[in-house]
Amino acid sequence: MFTTKSFIKKNKIGNFLKNVREHYIRDDIYCGVPTCNKCKNVSTSNLSSAHVNKCSLFKFNHFIILDTNIILDQIDVLEEPFICNVIILYTVLKEVKHRSLPIYKQLNAIIENPSRHFYVFINDHHKDTYLLESEGELINDYNDRCIRKACSWYINHLPEAKFVFITDDNNNRKLAIEENIPACSITDYVKHLDSSSLLEDKLSRKDHGPKEGIDIFPPHLSHGQLLKGVKEGPLHQGTFRASRDNFLEGFVNVEGYEDSVLLQGRNGLNRAVDGDIVAVKIFKKDDWVCPSGIILEDEGVSGENIEDVEEKEKALKKSQITQNNSEIRPTGRVVGIIRRKWRQYCGILQGASEGLFQIFVPADRSIPKIRIETRQGEFLKSQKFIVTIDSWPRYSRYPHGHFVRALGRIGSQETENEVVLLEHDVPHSQFSEEVLNCLPKLPWIITEEDEKKRVDLRSIDICSVDPPGCTDIDDALHCRPVDGKLEVGVHIADVSHFIRPGTAIDLEAASRATTVYLVNKRIDMVPELLSSNLCSLRGGEERFAFSCIWEMDHEANILNTRFHKSIIKSKRAMTYEEAQLTIDDKTKTDSLAESLRNLNKLAKILKKRRLDNGALVLASTEVKILMDSETMEPLDVEAKKMFETNSMVEEFMLLANISVAQKILQDFPDCAMLRRHPTPPASNFEPLVKAGKHLGFDIQIDCGKNLATSLDNAVKHDNPYLNTMLRMLATRCMLQAVYFASGTLQKEDYFHYGLAVPLYTHFTSPIRRYADVIVHRLLAVSCGSDCTYPDLLDKQKTTDLCQNLNYRNRMAQYAGRASVAFNTHLFFKGKLNDEEGYILYVRKNALQILIPKYGLECTLYLVKKGEESLFEYNEEDQTQRAGNVVLHTFDPVTVRLKLDSTNIQHEKFTLQLVKPFIEGFSVSPMNELESNKMDVDSTPKINKKRKSENSKSSKKNKPK
């Protein structure tokens, strides 16, 4: 039996079309209740006759039927095993999928878990529960009617069984009770469960009840007013970004303004949370101000106390009195939220207090503190846990949220790694059975059929050069003389041979997008059998590779290029240091040593040529954490050592990527996956230009070549680290490099600014980057080694894939930095050191100090709360003066470094000035004995004899 649904739809060219859909209705759909004798039981059900739902509101065992809003708002409650024997109506399931795909996926995971006893009833297609829409009826009212009809049918179908309908829609609940359907709200149901304590903490409280105080924020405009305002012009839409240095400042990038719009104070931010899509009203030009330049932290301990905020708002306004007109930016305020981007946040309680209400401090500094209701205060004060925001009423200083789940004890490495991964949205679950089933069976061997399809290079002296301890070796090199010329080869692991398009392992790798490297842990993009074994080009083992071979003269000019799939046998897996020692040892004259020397010679020529073309040499504060191999505690923190061989490998990886980009663009002009580095806008370079000007250097930013030349010339012999700091500032001025599909941009936009090349892609790391897998597939089709498939040639599919790759790569970088920061803090606990540093930025109330030895950037506050400052700030010269001492940007200083753990969530380094000495502010230098005593007394484990470096050294150390 079937019925029809018809509706009118307007097409793209303005014509109205009538659509008719057939809707099939059946009488054999199973109700799912295991004791039912009326249904033709032709399907399976997870509902259990043995499980008992105990809720004191109802004096009988029962099955639960849920409304849509319960699933959308209370999924965290539903994930708890106390809620079982639940019937999910198909009407509800469809609406959840339409309104929130992430929650739909969470719900499906619960439904598929047999221990949870959830069952989906296809009420839309059952002859007794299907309803026709009434004329003029709203879709929400129709869905509510369908749900109530299904509830009534269950009650009449099985009078001996009991059913309870749970909904937070007051009207729907009232109508259900009138139709003799037992119904209640989720809050009432949970409060009357035996296990109510934990579940009550997890309740989402979007309905925050009666007003609890005076309004401290202005009202938001309605959604209709916002859309109209944005469309007609008075309002502007953009993504809100909170300042990490000043909790009373934020920024929104909007169309029509080169600079981002500055928001300040409570009224300016108006309950926006980092990532929200907001509507802003921009002030008249006379009311524009510049960013404050001061560092403000939210020290509030009460959910409603705003006295400290008001005090800091006064300090914010005071900082605007003497402002530089050249730094004035468009200023405005948030008038409404177009779309919230709230997610789950990791963090801790801020000094657990008595009572139900606690303040939660997120790990992410850009997120405000959150007010939660919990009965587990005593337990949670030692835990890191997850919280979700439910609402932010006008009367509350902080948003309101609820507890989701505990992660583990504060400070444990396992917990902190979990926090890093969750905060940066890194997929890190175990690979599923479906994925593992895609792996080749062991023992894996190379067959005669494989040899016929590939070029055999096993006789060539090929070697890999990587960081120490690296197990995911995805590239190897060779160089040999041929007919008076040099044959140079880059050989890349042929990962695409094992990961076929559309398989479970391919979809998983595409979702993960990249391998993530933490200090003592690696989250692989592909299972370990591939990443550390079959695809790793280990010394002495035969492996499949994709080779890029150049014929070069001795001046590194490319005479010919070819690509092919190959079989290689790396003669040796070397570290950068081992390769360097081999090159430098003139007594070594074997073919491998000569190959490395020739590679190094050619690499120097290639690098000089790149730099002459305007490629930038930038700098960052990268450090290496040395770990105890047994306890996995940090033993030392040191700057990464660089050898000529680092640069040697980098040059040939860059050259391979450029050569491959040219080939795939030639054959796939519309769908080649390329990588571009956009030219930064001139405004990005303002801090760099200003810093150079104060030092007497003219930093030219009109093109990359002039910038590179300016940086090369910015040298002072009395401050050898100055040039490095300028390059670090230049790095921070850059935009991020991104992947894109070639057919979506004009060719002039393909340019890679940092490398100064018109065309670039990623080919050399397919074990750890999914972009490289796609490029391998494109190149394989170009070479005739493989066939194409529809998604590979779909420009839109490639664009969507690039968006995920760009996001995942960015999050992986942030996660790696957060892991280094945590382990650096762990190393410094209990230590008190005097260290040499440099002033990186001069602020109005502080100095940003760079300590190169540890790659740390810390804040030295120049005035304590309630005290008068000894310093005089000169905004024009960017200096701080105290008596005869004047502190400039990039001046060397000596500071006392100590880790302040009073705020466990946001541990920070506190600095005291040692040199130059300023009476009444600086401290006397520590002698070596005092420093050592502090170490021994406070951190006996850390000062054990160094045993080994971290065995999981990250592949990301290799520049690509």
Can you walk me through this structure?
- This protein is α+β, with helices and mostly antiparallel strands and 960 residues long.
- Among the domains are: 51-201, Rossmann fold, CATH 3.40.50.1010; 344-423, OB fold (Dihydrolipoamide Acetyltransferase, E2P), CATH 2.40.50; 434-670 and 760-812, no CATH class; 830-938, Nucleic acid-binding proteins (OB fold (Dihydrolipoamide Acetyltransferase, E2P)).
- Helices cover 30% and strands 24% of the residues.
- It contains 26 helices and 38 strands.
- The chain has a five-stranded parallel beta sheet with strand order 5-4-3-6-7. Strands 8-9-10-12-11 form a five-stranded mixed beta barrel. A five-stranded mixed β-barrel has the order 13-14-15-17-16.
- Helix 20 (644-667) packs across helix 24 and helix 21 packs antiparallel against helix 23 (722-733).
- The two termini are 62 Å apart.
- Pfam families: OB_Dis3 (PF17849), PIN_4 (PF13638), RNB (PF00773), Rrp44_CSD1 (PF17216).
Jot down its keywords.
single chain, 960 residues, alpha+beta, Rossmann fold, OB fold (Dihydrolipoamide Acetyltransferase, E2P), five-stranded parallel β-sheet, five-stranded mixed β-barrel, 30% helix, 24% strand, globular
Summarize the structure.
With 960 residues, this protein is an alpha+beta fold. Helix content is 30%, strand content 24%. Among the domains are: 51-201, 5'-nuclease (Rossmann fold); 344-423, OB fold (Dihydrolipoamide Acetyltransferase, E2P), CATH 2.40.50; 434-670 and 760-812, no CATH class; 830-938, OB fold (Dihydrolipoamide Acetyltransferase, E2P).
